[in-house]
Specification:
The protein has about 260 residues and is of the alpha/beta class. It has a single domain, classed as Alpha-Beta Barrel (TIM Barrel). Helix content is about 40%, strand content about 15%. It is built from twelve helices and eight strands. It has an eight-stranded parallel beta barrel with strand order 1-2-3-4-5-6-7-8, surrounded by five helices. Strand 1, helix 1 and strand 2 form a beta-alpha-beta unit. Helix 7 crosses helix 9. The longest helix has 19 residues. The chain binds phosphoenolpyruvate.
Length: about 260
């Protein structure tokens, strides 16, 4: 069972520089309002986080890191830690398919990042999902199962309260080939059933589970109205302020209290 509260995350990936991010935020802030039951989160380039954190109305938007390193400090040239992000971001993506498949991050890395985020007061958004070939082989549930087990190992029930799960089938990300709502429901039911097995019924009901994968302004409502879906992780369609604002509008309409 999903929450009435919705979480909508914009993942800008390696797009928009600092100035463009700031202009975008200015434009978006005029288009969306503060809604009690819709939390908006922006994940800009790491470079823009500091600027946006000074600019943003924190009641209107929270910020997320797209990535970070799991150690807190030390000789790790070029890396940024969750400790350094503390106070700037409220959320961080972990295990995004591009991190797993382009940068070959393993479940062990993912697990270390989930722990590092929580240790630093940042809510991890643990992304799980199967590739096209895994799906064709009928392995979707097994893959999700392994990624959840891998990412959440050593996480206590109290810590789980901080975790958000995003179901993001790899074949749907950035392809325009969004998953069918029934398939999303089936995958999320399976995620909740594993959480129930690991942490109990209350945790399984309360954990926020998002869908991500080629969501557009046109398709957003198809997911937001599903009983199992607590929000969206939006890549491509979040790069245009108007299209993202329309998605946000759909999220308002999907809550019990409406717009
Ligand atoms: C993503 O980056 O997590 C994502 C879902 O991207 P897109 O919406 O472009 O598929």
């Amino acid at each position: 069972m999903a929450q009435d509260k919705k979480l909508i995350i914009a993942n800008w990936k390696m797009n928009l520089g600092v100035h463009e991010s700031s202009l975008y935020l200015h434009k978006l802030a005029e288009k969306v309002k503060i809604h009690r039951d819709v939390q908006l989160v922006l994940a800009p380039t790491m470079l823009a986080l500091q600027t946006l954190s000074l600019q943003v109305n924190h009641r209107q938007f929270k910020l997320a890191a797209q990535n970070f390193y799991w150690r807190d400090h030390g000789a790790f040239t070029g890396e940024v830690s969750a400790t350094q992000l503390r106070g700037i971001v409220s959320y961080a993506l972990v295990g995004h398919s591009e991190r797993r498949h382009v940068f070959h991050e393993t479940d062990k890395d993912t697990r270390a990042k989930v722990q590092a985020a929580i240790r630093n007061g940042i809510r991890p958004v643990l992304c799980v999902g199967e590739t096209a070939s895994e799906r064709a082989a009928g392995e979707t549930k097994d893959i999700i199962h392994d990624q959840l087990l891998g990412g959440l190992a050593n996480i206590t029930s109290d810590e789980l309260d901080q975790v958000i799960i995003a179901y993001e089938p790899v074949w749907a990300i950035g392809t325009g080939n969004n998953a069918l709502p029934n398939d999303v429901t089936e995958a999320i039911v399976s995620i909740r059933s594993q959480i129930k097995h690991l942490y109990g019924a209350k945790a399984s009901n309360e954990i926020q589970v998002l869908y991500g994968g080629s969501v557009t302004a046109d398709s957003a409502a198809d997911y937001l109205t599903l009983a199992e879906v607590d929000g969206l992780l939006v890549g491509g369609a979040s790069l245009d302020a108007q299209s993202f604002a329309t998605i946000v509008e759909k999220a308002y309409n999907s809550t019990k209290k409406g717009a």
